[in-house]
């Protein structure tokens, strides 16, 4: 975990206690989430700016940003990288490479608990319609569809260029992804009044061989 290392010694301890005290006094869950996210992101930005490349998130001496060759995503498809704040600026995070490869308009990062970014994502969903939204997540409560079940042909037509297929990719640990899934589902129910959040998996052959490992992380 990155710390706000512009504050040292006892001052850091006092500052940390102060922030934790403010957080503890918040009673609204939404305010607590926003406070947690803001502190995570701010501390990681401040704590890493001297030694991490802010584009590829690797140590500056290992920066690979100049080696990334941008390419175009298929017309009519848009990725949303829904990232947990604890994965923001992590050196071993590979999700942000989607944004570097395809550009922010085709692969947009949205940090869990940042209301401005989440509103942008949901506004795009509402414009495109609920039939264009798919979450890459192995929903244990229902059988997720496979990529082959999605009508990709509709996304390539000229009339649908303003309503692309939106694929939401959860970027976080297994437990953190569960929290993000619940937040997405709550918003989905609020907007469309449906309990089922459409999920898609990369394989329809059952649980991944990594399934048990993820639960133990």
Automatic annotation (TrEMBL):
It catalyses: a uridine in tRNA + S-adenosyl-L-methionine = a 3-[(3S)-3-amino-3-carboxypropyl]uridine in tRNA + S-methyl-5'-thioadenosine + H(+). Pfam families: DTW (PF03942). This is tRNA-uridine aminocarboxypropyltransferase. InterPro entries: DTW (IPR005636), DTWD2/TAPT (IPR039262). PANTHER family: TRNA-URIDINE AMINOCARBOXYPROPYLTRANSFERASE, TRNA-URIDINE AMINOCARBOXYPROPYLTRANSFERASE 2. It comes from the Eukaryota. The keyword Oxidoreductase does not apply. GO terms for molecular function: tRNA-uridine aminocarboxypropyltransferase activity. The keyword Acetylation does not apply. Residues 49-217 form the DTW domain. Its EC number is 2.5.1.25. Keywords: S-adenosyl-L-methionine, Transferase, tRNA processing. It is an enzyme of class 2 (transferase). GO terms for biological process: tRNA processing.
